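[agent] plan:
  1. take the single chain provided in the ticket
  2. run structure prediction with default settings
  3. attach structure tokens to the ticket
  4. add a short note for the reviewer (M.T.)
[agent] executing step 1
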Amino acid sequence: MNIETLKVFKDLIETGSFSKAAEMNFISQSAVSQQIKKLEFIFRTRLFIKKENGLQLTEAGKIFYNSSKKIVTLYNETIAGIKKDILLKNNDKLKVESIYSAGIYVIGDYIKDFLNSNPYTQIDLQYKKYNEILDDIEKNRADFGFVACCASDRKSISSIYLKEEDMVLIAPLNGSPHGGEISSREISSFKLVLFDRNSPSRKYIEKALKEKKVKINVAMEMDNIEAIKATVISGAGVSIVPVSCIRPEEPDHEYKVYSFSDTRITRPIYMVYNKKRKMSSAAAAFLNKMLEKKRLGLEAKVNVF
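[agent] step 2 finished; step 3 output follows
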């Protein structure tokens, strides 16, 4: 007696059909009959009686069916567990790097979407500065990177444009004008708390303000969005940040948020990768997921540099 015989008996009782049991187990009907006869010979008793409306288990058949069901279920769970363990061990891991603001507020949905269809892939997400991400991508120390404001002009790196983020002004609760809009010209009267001067986001914001002939008065520089927000809350100045960084529960009691009445400042988000690197199956699946969004029209275009 083996697991296959127990499964054949279980399927026969549950379907009430020799033909269906044979089909489910990829054997002939005569093979089903032979296995049942062998079981009844071993136990020296009938396991079921054929009725017009199906099969009726004998007392011995009920005992054997219940045990068969438990054993087959345990066997299937064991096999599934082993296969899952093998998949987890053999599946490639992905190393993903991101600037802090994009990693915390933007790319979570992209990663979640990927993991929904690739549940056994392990993703190691690390936060780094723009140039560090490009260096790691170029030197194959990371599979993908997420950056803001500018892609890359490095020949080995390709960039997928993901989305455009609106920028807003945040100001401390005390000493700030009322209302949900502010003119870009008014920024000249405030002390600014911005990203550090070497970050693409800082350069991008300064360029947008200079185009509007706004005088820039930088009071403090920070290297991540949470430090900027904390500094604004303390009253040290105002800042221009991506709207995605504004949590719904924050503005009413921590700082004020303003959109611009006379202009629109945005920053693009890109995913970068080394086009010369041979991709693992997991990396190829991740890239295809991003390209699938493009084909479906859910996101924008692909730029190759």
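[agent] step 4 note for reviewer: Residues 299-305 have pLDDT under 50 and may be disordered.
[agent] ticket updated
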